[in-house]
Design a protein that fits this description.
globular, 127 residues, 7-stranded mixed sheet, 0% helix, mainly beta, 4-stranded antiparallel sheet
Amino acid sequence: QVQLVESGGGLVQAGGSLRLSCAASGRTFSSYAMGWFRQAPGKEREFVAAISWSGGTTYYADSVKGRFTISRDNAKNMVTLQMNSLKPEDTAVYCCAAGRTSISVRIFRTANEYSTWGQGTQVTVSS
């Protein structure tokens, strides 16, 4: 089992960038597919991006495709989400999640496929 801690959130103007990090504890991090989700006030939790444990497969929500990039460093037990061209509608609490799999290229796109969640970090984009 891994534990996840996010960092890097904050307040940014529209058009700006932020880089979120998710630090994982545990020696089996490389066996976990990872994902980012977000939840805005009064809205359902929304999938943002996912990456396989090999790092070779990524997947993005249409709303962030071309603006956000997910990556991972298994040697550092870290997953990052680079967010560029931010919009006010990107404002939300962003959480990273881990889902164990034996398939190196597998990704998960729904919340119920992930077994471990971080506490989240707030991202606020002002107009």
